[in-house]
From TrEMBL, chain A:
NCBIfam families: cydB. It is a multi-pass membrane protein. This is Cytochrome bd-I ubiquinol oxidase subunit 2 apoprotein. GO terms for cellular component: cytochrome complex; plasma membrane. One of its GO terms (biological process) is aerobic electron transport chain. Keywords: Cell membrane, Electron transport, Heme, Iron, Membrane, Metal-binding, Transmembrane, Transmembrane helix, Transport. It comes from Pseudonocardia hierapolitana. It comes from the Bacteria. Belongs to the cytochrome ubiquinol oxidase subunit 2 family. Pfam families: Cyt_bd_oxida_II. Coiled coil: none annotated. InterPro entries: Cyt-d_oxidase_su2 (IPR003317). It is found in: Cell membrane. The chain crosses the membrane at residues 6-35, 83-104, 116-138, 158-183, 195-217, 223-242, 249-274, 294-313.
UniProtKB/TrEMBL annotation, chain B:
The lineage of its organism: Bacteria, Bacillati, Actinomycetota, Actinomycetes, Pseudonocardiales. It is a multi-pass membrane protein. Keywords: Cell membrane, Electron transport, Heme, Iron, Membrane, Metal-binding, Transmembrane, Transmembrane helix, Transport. This is Cytochrome bd-I ubiquinol oxidase subunit 1 apoprotein. It comes from Pseudonocardia hierapolitana. It holds the Pfam family Cyt_bd_oxida_I. GO terms for molecular function: electron transfer activity; heme binding; metal ion binding; oxidoreductase activity, acting on diphenols and related substances as donors, oxygen as acceptor. It comes from the Bacteria.
Length: 331, 477
């Protein structure tokens, strides 16, 4: 494998880390009104279940995007300028959501908290849907001419395939979040989280199956078929395991489903990073977009040093907060 | 009005807004860590109470710094795709390092600190706030390195085939003289802001000490007032020294910025430092500017820029001629009035802030508190002055780089995203401005509310005769 390919894989790994980790906290955010209905204490249990980790999870996005900037400048630039409005939507949602987590509990007033709850739900649902939309369009291709400028407008991006992609990530993250809450909480919230997982599993299974089949039919290879099958299989396994109250294993299964879905999308994309709808000759490829070997080499050294360290201390942080969150913790 | 103008406004607005929170995060993280260390070493509950109180204010600010930082990383690609493609190989490297080495550290350990009060051993918990503080300061280093590279590009070459810059020497980028000097200047200025934040909050609480809920409270704020003043005075000395060094680097690497900041039109020896000038310079009519009014302190500018009172300082008209020969016809002058006044406001407001720190130290020596109420009000006013000085510093830095994004290599006009429409940029500019405006109101209200509520709100005072509670509650959401 040459260095640009190594870095394509590294970027895929960073996005996978992001979706696996922030995927569940998007799900938790979306489930807030359902699982915390009628009781502010329960809503606080839901939020505090991801309280110590959501910010660290979001840094996986910052790192994925930062690494794209450094390793594939043309990919970074084309993706963010080409998907201008969806990216704007995600950024605004992440701002509202981050502030909401921090500020919601700072004033003891039901109206104040209700407003921030809206920001948490919308701020979680919008990126959960939009990332699916963006990645589906990335696989499908964009209006990319020989000048390497992406000219897709919003109407192009809202095609049926991409909408199914958005629904697939949205429902998948809802399920992933429900399983996480079943694992991380106790009492009424855990009970409702299991019910939510049971309810979300068919929808997530159906849309993910449809999305990955469609991807496979239009762009797939035998290798991506295997990965896609893993994703759907893991999702079904997760649904069964949570019903049997094996929450730890169920969470592992939904994490695998998210990871395999991301891997399938990146594997479908390769070797292009921005495929052109107009002519395959205009595709922006890994080789075209990559930085020089010197930069990639430095990034490899730094990534090789830092990423294991990050995994180590982030795992430690999950270990520190391994206990289930209950009503007693937040009152 | 085209997409370029709006993209520039968006960058300016979002960056300035982001930078209202960043200096407080950088400085206050260390202040809070130091307060917690004092508690750890002495076991005195007032330090714990101060840690929790300033910790809460720190977190309210921290949240805004984090979320507005996301915009910064994304808008290079959204609005400035030609720039990003040109520089990514070089500029992206420190950015990726910032994420990998600093942001993960900062955000993971801040989570551990917020929620870990009753889960972690005290020593380990103390280490988490230090890890977060180190992360903040490290991230400042990487982003300032990237910024310094745009002003003094080093360690790279341009590929003739693709027209893109590529990195040839990472060490040169990380040890860029502009980067090291800027880092010292910006970080010490951040500590001035944080010091004055502590001063302003303490002064406010001492001003209203008759309303203190517990007799121990004024004693707590007397200590934090002193600590804030010491921080401000020490950091102020570093700001001044590094600022002097910055002026010399500006004379060497960015002479047009210095000439514009001083409104020097013709190259001069033994140049004076201008106090007040009114210039005559039509936009588009380049190379014929002059000052109608100019009040100067003789020799000072030459001394600041070159270290010798007789040193030569290049003028705008001469530089314009030189750049037009070097890079082809065009206007190579930045917005001179903006630079001229930003430079003065940065220095004036910054000195005023640091001056409050030094005078305050004198007034509070041997534990005395100033008797005059207006002195507390001056101390409170020093905080916005210092924040404004930081902002004007950035206006000078970034506007002074114009018309270049990468000095000598890429013009701002050539940096924008070709595929992004005026409507898209106008929409995002509107969204960010409205959102940031609303959040500013929320943030200010929350900070005032928590300052008013005082340390007793985050850690209740014991009733008379009862011991302090032993268990330390966590900050849950």
């Amino acid at each position: 494998m040459d260095l640009p390919t190594v870095w394509f894989v590294a970027i895929a790994v960073l996005w996978t880390g992001y979706f696996v980790l922030e995927g569940f906290d998007f799900g938790v955010g979306m489930l807030l009104p359902v699982l915390g209905r009628g009781s502010d204490t329960d809503r606080r249990v839901v939020i505090n279940a991801i309280g110590p980790v959501w910010d660290g999870n979001e840094v996986w996005l910052i790192t994925a995007v930062g690494a794209m900037f450094a390793a594939f400048p043309a990919w970074y630039a084309g993706l963010l300028s080409g998907f201008y409005l969806p990216v704007l939507l995600v950024v605004v949602a992440l701002i509202a959501r981050g502030v909401a987590f921090e500020y919601r509990g700072k004033v003891d007033d039901p109206r104040w908290r209700a407003r921030w709850d809206v920001a948490i739900v919308a701020g979680s649902a919008v990126p959960a849907f939009t990332w699916g939309l963006v990645f589906a369009n990335l696989v499908r291709g964009v209006e990319l001419g020989p000048d390497r400028v992406v000219r897709s407008d919003l109407v192009d991006l809202l095609n049926p395939y991409a909408l199914v992609g958005g629904l697939a990530t949205l429902t998948l993250f809802v399920l992933h979040g429900a399983v996480f809450l079943a694992l991380k909480t106790d009492g009424p919230v855990r009970h409702r989280a299991r019910a939510a997982a049971r309810a979300a599993a068919p929808a997530a299974g159906a849309t993910l199956f449809a999305f990955l089949m469609w991807t496979q039919a239009d762009h797939g290879s035998p290798a991506t078929a295997v990965v896609a099958a893993c994703a759907v299989g893991a999702l079904l396994g997760g649904a069964l395991l949570v019903a049997r109250r094996r929450e730890g294993w169920a969470f592992l299964a939904t994490a695998i489903a998210v990871a395999a879905t991301t891997a399938a999308l990146f594997a479908t994309l390769f070797p292009a990073v921005l495929p052109s709808l107009l002519d395959p000759a205009f595709d922006l490829t890994v080789a075209d977009a990559a930085s020089k070997p010197y930069t990639l080499g430095i990034l490899s050294w730094i990534g090789g040093f830092a990423l294991p360290l990050v995994l180590l201390y982030q795992s430690w942080s999950y270990w520190v907060f391994r206990r289930r969150v209950t009503r007693a913790h937040v009152s | 009005m085209d997409a370029l103008d709006l993209a520039r406004w968006q960058f300016g607005i979002t960056t300035i807004y982001h930078f209202l929170f960043v200096p407080l995060t950088i400085g206050l993280s260390v202040v809070v860590a130091a307060l917690q260390t004092a508690w750890h070493r002495t076991g005195r509950p007032e330090y714990l109470r101060a840690t929790k109180f300033f910790g809460k204010l720190f977190l309210i600010n921290f949240a805004m710094g984090v979320v507005t930082g996301i915009v910064q990383e994304f808008q290079f690609g959204m609005n400035w795709s030609t720039y990003s493609t040109f520089v990514g190989d070089v500029f992206g490297a420190p950015l990726a390092m910032e994420a990998l080495l600093a942001f993960f550290l900062e955000s993971t350990f801040i989570g551990l600190w917020i929620f870990g009060w009753d889960r972690l051993p005290r020593r380990v918990h103390l280490a988490t706030i230090w890890a977060a503080a180190i992360g903040s300061n490290l991230s400042a280093f990487f982003i300032l390195t990237a910024n310094a590279w745009m002003r003094h590009p080093v360690g790279f070459a341009v590929d003739p085939a693709t027209g893109r810059a590529y990195l040839t020497d990472i060490w040169a980028v990380l040890t860029n003289p502009q980067a090291l000097s800027t880092y010292l200047h910006v970080v010490s200025a951040s500590f001035v802001v944080a010091g004055l934040f502590v001063v302003a909050v303490s002064a406010y609480k001492l001003l209203h000490r008759d309303r203190a809920p517990h007799p121990d409270e004024p004693g707590l704020f007397r200590r934090t007032l002193r600590a804030g003043l010491v921080t401000t005075a020490i950091a102020g000395a570093v700001v001044a020294l590094s600022g002097d060094h910055q002026a010399k680097l500006m004379a060497e690497y960015e002479p047009m910025k210095l000439a514009s900041a001083e409104a020097i039109w013709e190259t001069e020896s033994a140049a004076g430092f201008s106090l007040f000038a009114i210039g005559d310079h039509e936009i588009g009519e380049v190379g014929v500017g002059r000052n109608v009014v100019d009040l100067e302190v003789p020799y000072v500018l030459s001394f600041l820029a070159t270290g010798s009172p007789a040193g030569e300082v290049e003028g705008i008209n001469d530089l314009q001629r030189r750049f037009a020969e070097q890079f082809g016809p065009g206007d190579y002058t930045p917005n001179i009035p903006v630079l001229y006044w930003s430079f003065r406001l940065m220095i004036g407001l910054g000195l005023a802030g640091v001056g409050v720190g030094v005078i305050g130290l004198w007034l509070t020596r041997r534990g005395a508190l100033p008797r005059h109420r207006w002195m507390y009000r001056v101390a409170i006013a020093a905080l916005p002055a210092a924040l404004a000085a930081n902002i004007f510093g950035w206006v000078l830095t970034e506007m002074g780089r114009q018309p270049w994004t990468v000095v000598g290599h890429l013009l701002t006009a050539a940096s924008v995203s070709p595929g992004v429409s005026l409507g898209e940029v106008a929409f995002s500019l509107t969204v960010f401005t409205a959102l940031y405006g609303a959040l500013a109101v929320v943030e200010a209200r929350l900070l005032l509310r928590y300052v008013a509520a005082g340390p007793g709100h985050v850690m209740p005072y014991p009733r008379a005769g009862e011991p302090e509670p032993d268990r330390v509650p966590a900050f849950v959401y």
